[in-house]
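Summary of Year 1 activities. Much of the first year was spent building the evaluation harness for sequence design. The harness presents a backbone, in tokenized form, and records the residue chosen at every position. We chose the following record to illustrate the format because it has been used consistently in internal testing since the harness was completed.
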């Protein structure tokens, strides 16, 4: 929220930038901040769900730059 406000304005000096940032934080209402927090929680839950699904997938590795004779296979690597 603050980053968007700062990016929308071309501020030349650091002192003006600092004052503008403080003002931008003061303009954030409790309701707006709560909505942002809920949005982040929803995104985080989506990442957790995708990661869980990803963890359930079998590992598939393709090694480049090695010939068949140079490869050492273990039982866990032979599983499809």
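For this record, the design step produced the sequence shown next.
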């Amino acid at each position: 929220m603050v980053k968007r406000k700062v990016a929308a304005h071309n501020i030349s000096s650091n002192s003006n930038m600092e004052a503008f940032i403080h003002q931008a934080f003061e303009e954030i209402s409790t309701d707006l901040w709560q909505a942002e927090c809920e949005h982040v929680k929803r995104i985080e839950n989506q990442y957790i769900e995708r990661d869980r699904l990803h963890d359930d997938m079998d590992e598939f590795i393709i090694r480049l730059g090695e010939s068949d004779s140079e490869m050492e296979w273990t039982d866990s690597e032979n599983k499809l």
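Helices lie at 2-8, 14-26, 30-55, 75-78. Quantitative recovery figures across the full test set are reported in Table 2.
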